[in-house]
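Whiteboard transcription, Tuesday session. T.W. wrote the C-alpha cells on the left side:
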C-alpha cells in the first residue's frame, strides 16, 4: 500500500474529495488549496477566505465549494456568540475570479448545506431562529421559521424535488414540506406523532413499527434498494423493517457473549455459528518491529465486558464459566446487559448503523462497548464478524464502491474488513500520524487518513490486490489471515 507524505493543516478534519473525485480540497487557516484528486500533489488553485475556515462543503456537481466561519459560540448557545459575524463564501473551481459571500450578521451560523441542484444554499441561524434558502442564480431567499434543533432538521427527497423541514412551535413538533423548484410550501406545519423529534428521513416521519419495542429509536438507515429500514434502538437491539407492511422482519441483540452453539441447533441463535471474532493484538516481526494485527479467536464462548475506568485490555476474554465475576452489568445470556440499562444503570444503545454500498452488510456500534464493531449480513440479521480493538473506535466508514470497511481507533494503524476477512495497515513511523478519521475517494481506490487532533493527514492508495480481494464474492470464508501478513510486507512511502 502506498502512503503519501504527511500534510499539515489547521483543519485536517475538513479535508474533502469532490463528489466527482477530480479535486481534493485542503483548508489551512484562511486559505483553501484545491489539488488534483488523482495525485493529491498538483496544486490547481488557491482561495483566500476572509476568516479561518471552519466549514467546507463541495456542491453536488463539484463545480462550487462552500466555506464558512461557524459562529464562535455555536454549540454553546451563549450571548457572546453574537460578537462573531458569521458568513458563508462560495467559490467557483473553473472561474477563480467569481465569488459569492453571504453575510449572516449577528444572527450567527449554526450550520449550512447545499441543495441538490448545487445552486441553492441552506443556512440555519444560531439558536435555530430560522433557516434561510439562498439562491445563487437570482439572489432570492426563502425562509423556514422555527427550525427544530435536531439532526438532521431538514432532509431532501431522493430525487431532490421536495424538502422536509422539522419545526418546533410552542413546545410541539411539526413538519413542513417544500417543493424545491419554486420553494413554495406544499404542506405546512402538520403535527407529527412523536413528542420530541430527533431527526427525519424520507419517506418516514416516525418509525411507527418500532414504537412498541425497546426504549426508543436512536438511529435509522435505509438500504440502497429502499426496501428495508434498519433501526438501531436504545435497548441495543438492531431491527429490520419492511417498507411495504412496516413490520419488523428480524431483530437481534448486540449480545456481549458469543457462545458455542450445538451444530444441530436452529433458529436465530444458531447464526453465531458463522460469527468470526477478530481481536487486535501486537505482533513482533523478525526485525523487532511491533505491529498491531487482527488475530482470529476460535475459542468459545467469548465474553465482552462493558467499558469502565480500567484499561481496555480487560474488556475482552474467552471464558469457560458462564458467569464472570465482578461485572454485574451483564450475564452470559446477554439479558443482564439489557436489564441493567432498563433499570437506569447505564445509558447507551446503538450509536452507529452504516450500510455497505451494495446493501448486503451493516456495521454497527453500541455505546456500552465502544471498542467493538459488529458486522451483519442483510436483510436477515446474520452476525458474521465481531471486531474487537484495544482503544475506542473513532471512525467507521464503508468504501463507496466495494464492501470494504475501514476502522480507526487513534492507534498507529488502519483496520480493514471485507467478506474475505480482516487485515491491519500500520502507518509508517515517519508520518507520525495517529488515524482518527478517513475520507474515501469516490472511486474507492484511495482515502484521506486524518490524524489525531485534526492537524495532519495523508493519502493512502490501495493496491489492485486489495481491490480484487474486496470485490470478489467468496465461495466460503477464508481459514487464515495470511493475506494480512502479505499486505504488511508491501508498505512503502511515495512522493505523490
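and on the right, the sequence the group agreed on:
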Amino acid at each position: 500500500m502506498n502512503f503519501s507524505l504527511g500534510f499539515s493543516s489547521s483543519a485536517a478534519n475538513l479535508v474533502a474529495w469532490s463528489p466527482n473525485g477530480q479535486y481534493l480540497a485542503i483548508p489551512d487557516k484562511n486559505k483553501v488549496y484545491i489539488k488534483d484528486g488523482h495525485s493529491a500533489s498538483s496544486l490547481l488553485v488557491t482561495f483566500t477566505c476572509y476568516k479561518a475556515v471552519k466549514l467546507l462543503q463541495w456542491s453536488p456537481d463539484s463545480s462550487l465549494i462552500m466555506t464558512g466561519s461557524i459562529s464562535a459560540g455555536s454549540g454553546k448557545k451563549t450571548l457572546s456568540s453574537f460578537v462573531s459575524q458569521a458568513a458563508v463564501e462560495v467559490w467557483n473551481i473553473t472561474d477563480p475570479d467569481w465569488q459569492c459571500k453571504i453575510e449572516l450578521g449577528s444572527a450567527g451560523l449554526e450550520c449550512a448545506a447545499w441543495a441538490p441542484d448545487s445552486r441553492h444554499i441552506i443556512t440555519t441561524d444560531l439558536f435555530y431562529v430560522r433557516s434561510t434558502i439562498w439562491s445563487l442564480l437570482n439572489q432570492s431567499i426563502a425562509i423556514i421559521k422555527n427550525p427544530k434543533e435536531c439532526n438532521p432538521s431538514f432532509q431532501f427527497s431522493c430525487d431532490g424535488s421536495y424538502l422536509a423541514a422539522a419545526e418546533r412551535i410552542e413546545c410541539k413538533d411539526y413538519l413542513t414540506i417544500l417543493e424545491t423548484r419554486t420553494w413554495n410550501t406544499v404542506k405546512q406545519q402538520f403535527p407529527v406523532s412523536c413528542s420530541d423529534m430527533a431527526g427525519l428521513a424520507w419517506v418516514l416521519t416516525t418509525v411507527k413499527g418500532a414504537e412498541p419495542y425497546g426504549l426508543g429509536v436512536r438511529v435509522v438507515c435505509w438500504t440502497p434498494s429502499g426496501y428495508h429500514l434498519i433501526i438501531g434502538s436504545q435497548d441495543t437491539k438492531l431491527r429490520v423493517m419492511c417498507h411495504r407492511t412496516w413490520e419488523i422482519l428480524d431483530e437481534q441483540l448486540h449480545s456481549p457473549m458469543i457462545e458455542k452453539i450445538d451444530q444441530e441447533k436452529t433458529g436465530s441463535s444458531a447464526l453465531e455459528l458463522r460469527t468470526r471474532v477478530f481481536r487486535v493484538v501486537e505482533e513482533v516481526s523478525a526485525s523487532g518491529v511491533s505491529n498491531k494485527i487482527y488475530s482470529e479467536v476460535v475459542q468459545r464462548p467469548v465474553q465482552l465486558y462493558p467499558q469502565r475506568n480500567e484499561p481496555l485490555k480487560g474488556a475482552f476474554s474467552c471464558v469457560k464459566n458462564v458467569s464472570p465475576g465482578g461485572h454485574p452489568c451483564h450475564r452470559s445470556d446477554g439479558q443482564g446487559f439489557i436489564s441493567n440499562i432498563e433499570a437506569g444503570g447505564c445509558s447507551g444503545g446503538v450509536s452507529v448503523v452504516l450500510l455497505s454500498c451494495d446493501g448486503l452488510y451493516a456495521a454497527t456500534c453500541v455505546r456500552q462497548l465502544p471498542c467493538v464493531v459488529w458486522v451483519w449480513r442483510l436483510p436477515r440479521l446474520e452476525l458474521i464478524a465481531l471486531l474487537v480493538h484495544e482503544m475506542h473506535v473513532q471512525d467507521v466508514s464503508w468504501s463507496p464502491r466495494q464492501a470494504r470497511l475501514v476502522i480507526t481507533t487513534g492507534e498507529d494503524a488502519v483496520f480493514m474488513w471485507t467478506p474475505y476477512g480482516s487485515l491491519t495497515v500500520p502507518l509508517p513511523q515517519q508520518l507520525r500520524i495517529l488515524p482518527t478519521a478517513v475520507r474515501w475517494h469516490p472511486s474507492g481506490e484511495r482515502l484521506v487518513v486524518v490524524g489525531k487532533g485534526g492537524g495532519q493527514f495523508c493519502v493512502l492508495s490501495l493496491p489492485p490486490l486489495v481491490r480484487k480481494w474486496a470485490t470478489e464474492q467468496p465461495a466460503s470464508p477464508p481459514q487464515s489471515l495470511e493475506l494480512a501478513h502479505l499486505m504488511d510486507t508491501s508498505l512503502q512511502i511515495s512522493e505523490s
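Someone added at the bottom: The two ends are 13 Å apart (CA to CA).
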